[in-house]
Amino acid sequence: MKFKTQKIAYYFFAVCMLLLSLQIVYGFIMGFAHMGYDNLHSIIPFHTARATHTNLLVMWLLAGFMGAAYYIIPEETDRELIYPQLAIVQLVALVVVGVTAIIGFHFNWWEGRKFLEIPRPLDYLVVVDVLLFIFLIGGTIWKGKRYSTTSIVLFFGLLTAALLYLPGMIPTTNQTMDSYWRWWVVHLWVEGVWELIMGAILSFLLIKLTGVDREIIEKWLYVIVGFTFLSGILGTGHHYYFIGTPRYWLMIGGFFSALEPLAFLGMAMYAIAMAKKGGRQHPNRLALTWTIGCAVMSFVGAGFLGFAHTLPQVNIYTHGTLVTAMHGHLAFWGAYAMLIFAMIAYAMPQLTGRKLFDNGWSVFAFWTSNIGMVAMTLAFAVAGVAQVYLERRMGLDFLQVQKEIEVHFLGLVLAASLFSLGIFAFIWIFIKYGLPKGKIENVSAAN
Ligand code: HEM
Ligand code: HEM
Ligand SMILES: [Fe+2]
User: Domain tally for the chain?
Assistant: First the structure.
C-alpha cells in the first residue's frame, strides 16, 4: 500500500462481506419457498425476499466498486485521496439508505419494479451519495500527478453508472414507457458502463499481478471499451421484444445483442494472454486466479448463457422464466462478484501486511464457491427448461408448473449450500486478515 487513504477501501469491502451474507440468507428463503416450504410467508413473502436478495446484491456490488476505486485511484494518480473523512461519511450514508430500503421492503414500502424497487424518496438520497463519491474520486484524479487510461476508464464507468440511474426515475404511468426506461438502467449498467468498470479494474489487477507493460494492457482496454459500446448500447433492444415497443427492435436487439459476447470473450482472452505473457511473477497467485477466473466465468455466464436466450425466436419462450435466473446468477457472479473478490484478494495483503493467500482455506474458497455456483446454474437451467416446456409449449397453468418443478429446487439448495461454504471460507479469511494498519483518523491527506 503506497498511500494511507487507500485503507478506506477496507471498510467498503467489509460492508460487501456483510451484505453478501445477508443476500445468501434471502436466497435460501426463496430456494425453500420454491421447494414448497414457504414457511416464512407471513413475515417475508416471496416478493419481499426477491427484492431484498437482488437489491442487497446491487448494493454490495456498488460498495465493492467504490472500495476498489478508493484503493485504485490514489495509486493510479500518485496522490492521496482528497477529503478522506468524507469517504467514510459517504459509506455510512450508503449503508443507512440501503438498510432503510431493505426494512421498507418488509413493510411493502417499495416500487415493485424489478431491480429498481427502492422507493422514490430514497432514490434522491442514493443520487446525493453517489455524487459525493464521484466528487471525491474525480477531484483526486483532477489534482493527481498522473492521468492513466485505467483511472480515466474507471472514472467514466463510475460517472456514467451514476448518470444512468436517473432514467429509472422518469415519472410515467405508462407500463411500456416504464419498462423502456427501466432497461436503460438495468441493461446499460450490466452490459454497458459496468463493463468499463470491470475492464478498468481487470487492467489494474493485471498490471500489478503479471508485470506486463502498462502500455500493452491499456491498449487492450480501448479495444474492449469499443466492443462493449458497439454491441451493448443497441443490444438493449433484446429487452424490447415483447413490452409494447415497435417491431424493429426484434431485428436491432437480436443482431446487436448477439455480438455482445465478443466483448466478454475479448476480456477472457486478454486476461489469459497477459497472465501467460507476464509469467505470473507476483507472489499473490490467488489474486491472479480470481482475476482470470472472473474474466473466464463472465464469458460463460454473461456471454455464453446470455447468447443462449437473446434471439427473439428463443426469448419468446424463455422470457421471464427460470432460464433468466440461470443466466442472471452466473453472469453476476462471474463478471461482478468475482471481480470484487479478485480486488479484495489482491488488496487485503497490501492493506494489512498479512499474507494469507497461500492458505489452504483461500484455495478452498475459490474452488468451492465456483463449483457451487456452476451447480446452482445447472439446477436453475433444469428447472427453467422444464418450466418453458410445460408452461410455454404445453400451455399448463403457471402455478401448476411451479408445483411440478419443486423437486429441482432440492438440487438448487444443495448446490447453494456448497457455494455458501466457499463464500464463508472467503469471509473467514477476510476476518483473519484483520483491520488495516493504522487508524483511519490518522489519515489527513486532503492536500
Ligand atoms: C455481466 C453481464 C450481464 C449480467 C450481470 C446479466 C444479468 C441479467 C439479469 C439479472 C437479467 C434479468 C433482468 C430482469 O429481468 O430484470 C438478464 C436478462 C437478460 N440477459 Fe443478461 N446479463 C449480462 C449480460 C448479458 C449478455 C452479454 C447477453 C446476451 C448476449 C444477455 C442476455 C440477456 C437477455 C436476453 C435477458 C432477458 C431475459 C428475459 O427475457 O427474461 N445478458 N441478464
Ligand atoms: C445461496 C445462494 C443463493 C440462492 C439459494 C439463490 C436463490 C435465488 C432464487 C430462488 C431466486 C429467485 C428466482 C425466481 O424468481 O423464482 C434468485 C434470484 C436472483 N439471484 Fe440468487 N441465490 C443465491 C445467491 C446469489 C448470488 C451469489 C447472486 C449473484 C452473484 C445471485 C443473484 C440473483 C439474481 C440476479 C436474481 C434475479 C434473477 C432474475 O432476475 O431472474 N443470487 N436467487
Ligand atoms: Fe440486457
Answer: 1
